[in-house]
Write a structure and sequence with these properties.
The structure holds two protein chains of two kinds. Helix content of chain A is about 75%, strand content about 0%. Chain A has helices at about 5-25, 30-55, 60-90. Classes of the chains: A mainly alpha, B mainly alpha. At the A-B interface, helix 1, helix 2 and helix 3 of A face helix 1, helix 2, helix 3, helix 5 and helix 6 of B.
């Protein structure tokens, strides 16, 4: 018998894994972006689970908008990464603060 | 019974793929594990009855976003070894923080004073197909956010192009404003040379 709690637990574990990914891989921007996608996936699972178990379609509408904004943010983040790499030759972001004037 | 097995299968593979996204050595492998995680999350949503969102996840997230990640990862020449230098230093503390966060979240979810949602009641049956229900709400109540989502995508597209656009040195593109500003008196000069004299250009 699958309850809402099952889905929420999966969402929670994915969220925590995303946060852990950001925490560990702080030098590697691509892994940070992928960890952010994991966090957004966890949020989407939560929204869809609540929508299914409460019978309210608004949760899925919200999940659709989260998906849209996540796609836009991934595109812009990768564009910034590409021009950062063009300038620097590597994607280690520990030394991003050296860009200040 | 089948739904329960499917749920545990999808959930296990999703979580395992997410772990491997973070801990894989090769970023290309990380992206591939991320794609697997998305597919299994779509499976989880299918079980819950949200088939439109599940397929949207596959088409948009896997088909566009993850492929974009793959392109960028394969295009950049990344030195993997240098990037993992802070890994083992941060790992124990990171796992501690992650466990604390997980404990907090699960503790919050298992609170027994929750409303009817967490009481273990079965999924309410849908009266109409999922996409019909979505369409009825999306274009009436949520028309404004829908249009703004389109605008967000447009701005993201323009932003990405503007950020990464490079001018090629050998192209001779027309300068339209110069062409439009040109007047007849700039273009043609009437000179009346005498017989035998040449014209100085």
């Amino acid at each position: 018998m699958i309850t809402l709690g099952h889905y929420l637990t999966v969402g929670a574990i994915l969220f925590v894994l995303g946060v852990l990914g950001i925490f560990i891989n702080r030098r590697n921007v691509i892994l940070i972006l992928m960890a952010i996608e994991l966090i957004l996936l966890a949020v989407n699972i939560n929204l869809v689970a609540f929508s299914a178990f409460l019978g309210d379609i608004v949760g899925q509408i919200m999940a659709m908008f989260v998906l849209t904004v996540a796609a836009a943010e991934a595109a812009i983040g990768l564009a910034i990464l590409v021009i950062f790499f063009r300038r620097r030759g590597s994607i280690a972001v520990d030394d991003v603060n050296r860009m200040h004037g | 019974m089948i739904a329960l097995t499917a749920f545990y299968l999808f959930a296990t593979v999703t979580i395992a793929s997410a772990v491997l996204v973070i801990f894989a050595r090769n970023p290309v492998h990380s992206v591939l594990w991320l794609i697997l995680a998305f597919f299994n999350a779509a499976g989880l949503m299918l079980i819950a009855g949200a088939e439109f969102i599940a397929l949207l996840l596959v088409i948009v997230y896997v088909g566009a976003v993850a492929v974009l990640f793959l392109f960028v990862v394969m295009m950049l020449d990344i030195d993997f070894a240098e990037l993992r230098s802070g890994f083992t230093k941060n790992l124990p503390f990171g796992i501690l923080i992650a466990l604390v966060l997980l404990a907090e979240v699960i503790f919050a979810e298992s609170a027994h004073q929750e409303g009817p949602a967490l009481s273990g009641a079965p999924v309410p049956e849908a009266t109409q197909p999922n996409i019909v229900a979505l369409g009825q709400v999306l274009y009436s109540r949520f028309l404004y956010p829908f249009e703004i989502a389109g605008l967000i995508l447009l701005v993201a597209m323009i932003g990405s192009i503007v950020l990464t656009h490079r001018k090629r040195g050998d192209l001779r593109t027309p300068k339209v404003d110069r062409q439009v500003k040109r007047r007849p008196e700039d273009a043609v000069k009437l000179s009346r040379p005498g017989v035998g004299e040449g014209v100085k250009i």
